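Comment thread on ticket #2218

A.B. wrote:
> Attaching the input chain for the structure job we discussed in standup.
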Amino acid sequence: MSSTAATWLKAQRKTELVDIAEKVGLKDFESLKKADLETALDEHLLAHSSKHSRDSSLAPYYKRITASPSKEMVVVDKKETKTPAAKSRRTTKAKEELEADSAEGSSTALAARTPKNAAQAKLLFPANVPLPASPRDVADSIDRQTRRVKSRLSKVYKTSGVAEYTDDIRDRVSSSATIETFALIVELLGLRSEILPMRFLTTLPASKALGTGEIPIKMIDVFALLTATFWSTFILWFVTSVALPLTAAYFFNPTLKARHGHLRNAKHVQSAGQYDPLTFNIMKALTVFLVYGKDVSLLGWPGEEAKARIQGSVPGGYQGVLIASGIGALTSLYEAVLKK
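C.D. wrote:
> Ran it. Output below, let me know if you need it in another format.
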């Protein structure tokens, strides 16, 4: 490394050295420390002096090389000059002798002129001791690493397909039919504990290795499917919450006429529009209110025992079913307004 040019490189901050490396096209310098980066820049600038010596920002560097030429510059000139081998050897030797004499003379004169400055420079800038990173260098390094992590996480998120799956799920559940289906599932889960209770099967023994006690094992009593209690209760719930509302929504469907102008064209409607959600919720609320709230029956059906089971097992009783039907009706109205 040329001493005077190296002093100029050492006086620069690492961020400035990084800018110079990017400007002159130095490769694979990101992981280098400041001292290694100085050496790599010095070698690169010497090897490409004909290309970068005209750059005004690098003028101080090349002025120091011109003021105190070294053997490295001679090697560069030897590489760039294409002459016969014998002639180049003689020319190189002559140049080395002349430059050695001029270098000794210039260094002696410089030492004689400024002995204190040279000593201070040796004390302040040791040749083999790298300077510690400044807070600005640390902040720049952290910022670069943060940008890299964000870029990698963004690529992983895009390639995983999470956004597409999320949009697909939102598109499927954003409808009144999904809300009505969810309400029916909640009612059926509450009813299951009444008509298909859990029965004790066996017990897993305690385990000292795992630190667990005895664990009872239960399963659904499938033999309840053979009882009249199960079928009477399930049929009553199915008729009042599913069958009657769905039948009314199929036949009393104002959307068919609104779309096609006449009921004879209803066969061209897709299956998704054959049931009116507003009619479904209104008929369900009316049926539940009359059967469970007003004890309306037809020829003694339904029985009081079946109604009591449904009332005690469905979350919120028949009032909870009425609230769910009201929410479904409002959702269907809102959906119809948005489609206009």
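A.B. wrote:
> Thanks. Noting for the ticket: The CA atoms of residues 173 and 179 lie 8 Å apart.
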